[in-house]
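Researcher: Re-running this chain for the archive, since the previous output was lost when a drive failed. Same request as before.
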Amino acid sequence: MSEAGIEGAGTGHDRQVYKVMIDAPIEVVWNTLVKTDEVLPFFFGAVCEAEDGALKPGKRMRMVTPNRKYASVVGEVLEFSPPHRYAHTFKFTQWDDDYCTVTYELRETPEGVEFSLITTGVPAGTKTAQSMQQGGSFITQNLKSLVETGKPGFSGKMVMMLGPVMGFMTPAKCRIGNWPLKGQ
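Model: Regenerated structure tokens:
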């Protein structure tokens, strides 16, 4: 891990790993990561919704705005193994890029929980790749801050403040009706 606690940020597009050490019990980190139906500052102020209300393999999930008007990310849960591993397919709704995979891994160590966010299959040179290079660091750092202090980091606070103001800039293709949780 680098001094900032991030490994692999900005290196290649097929697999990127963002790591951070979190000083908390693994159950606390896990339960914070997989919360549904409440605003998550480390996921850019989005709310995680799951098909049938639970994150389970084979079920759809999506990240939506708190007012439930727009979906920013959609995917399908691939693995859900508390409290160590959660993986899902991933697509930003505003772009036409292909789906990729995001895996969250938690490992207990004597220093705390090593949290890893791993992206695979990110389409090279796409807006998804550019966004994940910044987003991976944002997510790991703000999850760490939220778990350890009860508050997101500065960048998380800024996103929470600006998110509602920026809603008018969200493309119509992101409207939640275009991204249902139930299969079509």
